[in-house]
Amino acid sequence: MSAPLLEISRLAVELGGRGSVAQILDDVSISVPAGSITGVVGESGCGKSTLLRAILGILPRQARTPRGRILFEGRDILPDRAAQARGRIGFVPQDPYLSLNPVFRAGDQILEIMRRHAPGTRTQHKARLIELLRAVQLPEPEAALGKYPHQFSGGQRQRLLIAAALSCEPSLIVADEPTTALDVTTQREILGLLRELTRARGLSMLFVTHDFGVLASLCDQVAVLYAGRVAETGPTRQVLDAPAHPYTRMLLACHPDRAVELAGIPGTVPPATAQPSGCRFHPRCPVSRPSCAEAPPPMLPLPGGRAVACPYHAEHLESALG
Amino acid sequence: MAAIGLFIVLFALVVAIFAPWIAPFPDDAFESHIMQRLRPPSAEFPFGTDNLGRDLLSRVILGTRSAILVAVSVVLAAMLIGVPIGLAAGWRDGWMSEGLMRVTDVFLAVPQLILALALGQLLAPGIGTAMVALALTYWPFFARTVFAETRRLRGSLFVDALAGIGAHPIRILLLHVLPNAAPAVLVRATIGMGFTILTAAILGFLGVGAAPPTPDWGLAVAEARQHLPEAWWFATFPGLAIMLLVLGFNLLGDGLRDAADPRLRRSRE
User: Fold this and answer.
1) What ipTM score was computed for the predicted complex, to two decimals?
2) CATH of A6-317, one of 3.10.25.10, 3.40.50.300, 1.10.10.10, 2.60.120.290
3) Most CB atoms closer than 10 Å: which of A191, B6, B28, B227?
């Protein structure tokens, strides 16, 4: 495999006020190989959206200077908020509602992005955008350019934003749960569309979700986040079929399609201002040992290109958990 | 209804702009003709004459100009204070934002008439003082309207994206956030116009607004009091003018609010 298109290494993001510092991301390393779809899965508040915001350079104002590196096409884009290289990253947001300014025409807003990041004249941009709107199956592409955002339905707006993400010929798409605001039928269509478009154009995608079903149907490999750290990475099918980290195992056991008897994970996700020491999952882990509270576990490589942040993964493969 | 309001307001604007040319006796703003005082409405004086023999129609027409001038200046001044405060307070959290909004609340709690009366006593009573008092009590409405819209939009993705490519906060606020608040501000301003005209008339009536011999509706009603009920026309026509114009602005404001409300707009499409 060639060098990854996007390589996040040892990324740490803290939101800080006086007195309380929230560790949103800590020592996160994820890579997206060229031409593949990587999923990031985790509960609400585990840092998924912050990860994307760090890639896009739109971390909230309260964020302290992030540590680590985000290599995109060989360049570190993390230190530079307005890095021009980000023009080659397309973003599909979670909530299509306030992603476009309600008082400007949808077409003008997308053409404005293209003016900044794509070569060519306005006429060329317009032609290309209409072509893209046709590719995302938005009805009446020419008329759509002159409409205001509120004149589209939720699904149409999401299609519009996918077209916007593709408008500057990106090599990478990052998507933040782009289907959660939509109903199930539209969800299917949008996912199918994303898959087709990325495959057809040879794009890579980083796809954030909390839905294992979406993950299984879309992503080539996956990274499981828990409380701002990576618990486990690997090819999607293998991680889902034989999860190695206790958190992944328990999380999958919660899925109604898989569970014989619906289980839960005792306890709650720790607040980001008071992360437990050592392994962040140890207070909730049924197989934790005293040593788990001492130091954060390193990522251990497993066969098949997998890695897991639990030194005891082999032992409880046979334990009562499974 | 909104069309009626728009018609009244446009009519008043035309009258205000061309007042000196429309009024049959434009000099009656200052001159008095004591020999023809308190004449009932007739062909020569359609609205009758006042206690100093001046043509009431001319005084009502000239009064339109001063009423609208006062209303426009007060609302503009209130916007100039309120809108920047709302934007600044909505954009950031922290003690400054809190402080600005609490000051806004304090001004919102000050009764308009009482402040105007107090300022009139402290400074020279006159239309200038009344306008200052009105502007000082009306800006919090703009500040709160703009504050709410800024708060709603500052976390939205398009604002983040603008900040991400390095746009200056002032540019984001003025070019991208403020246009979203424009409909609400416009509605506020329209209703504020009617409100200001009414309050300015009350102040004129109480003697702390316009001073004689300025043609002012409130002042005219006050002077007419002593001649009621015999000279009924003296109080009626300036009073009607106040009522009509305030009604016009309120109808227009209501209509604009309906048009600006996205929920109503969507259901109509």
Assistant:
1) 0.75
2) 3.40.50.300
3) B28
Among partner residues B164, B262, B266, which is closest to A56 by beta-carbon distance? B164
Residue B38 tokens, joined:
């308190």
Q: How far apart are CA B54 and CA B74, in angstroms?
A: 29
Distance from CA of A82 to the nearest CA of B (A): 5
Pick from A99, A104, A150: CB nearest B157: A99
Query: How many other C-beta atoms can be found within 10 angstroms of the C-beta atom of residue A289?
Result: 13
Q: Closest partner residue to A58 among B153, B161, B269, by Cβ?
A: B161
Chain A nearest CA to B159, separation (Å): 8
**Which domains does chain B show, CATH number per domain?**
2-9+48-268 (1.10.3720.10)
Find chain A residues with C-beta within 8 A of B168's C-beta: none
Identify the CA nearest to A227 among candidates A286, A257, A267.
Answer: A267
Helix axes B56-91, B127-154, angle to 10 degrees: 40
Distance CA A285, CA A227 (A): 13
- Per-residue pLDDT of chain B (269 residues), as tens digits, is 889 999 999 999 999 999 889 888 888 777 788 787 888 888 888 888 888 888 889 999 999 999 999 999 999 999 999 999 999 999 988 899 999 999 999 998 988 888 888 888 888 778 888 899 999 999 999 999 999 999 999 888 889 888 877 789 999 999 999 999 998 999 999 999 999 999 999 988 888 888 888 888 988 998 888 888 888 888 899 999 999 999 999 999 999 988 876 555 544 43
Q: Residue A223: which pLDDT band, with cuts at 50, 70 and 90?
A: very high
Domain ranges of chain A: 6-317
pLDDT tens, residue by residue, A152-185: 988 899 899 999 999 988 999 999 988 877 788 8
Contact B266 A101 (CB under 8 A): no
Q: What is the DSSP string of chain B?
A: -HHHHHHHHHHHHHHHHTHHHHSS-GGGGT---GGGTTPPS-SSSTT-B-TTS-BHHHHHHHHHHHHHHHHHHHHHHHHHHHHHHHHHHHH--SHHHHHHHHHHHHHHHS-HHHHHHHHHHHS--SHHHHHHHHHHHHHHHHHHHHHHHHHHHHTSHHHHHHHHTT--HHHIIIIIIHHHHHHHHHHHHHHHHHHHHHHHHHHHHHTSSS-TTS--HHHHHHHHGGGTTTTHHHHHHHHHHHHHHHHHHHHHHHHHHHHH-HHHHHHH-
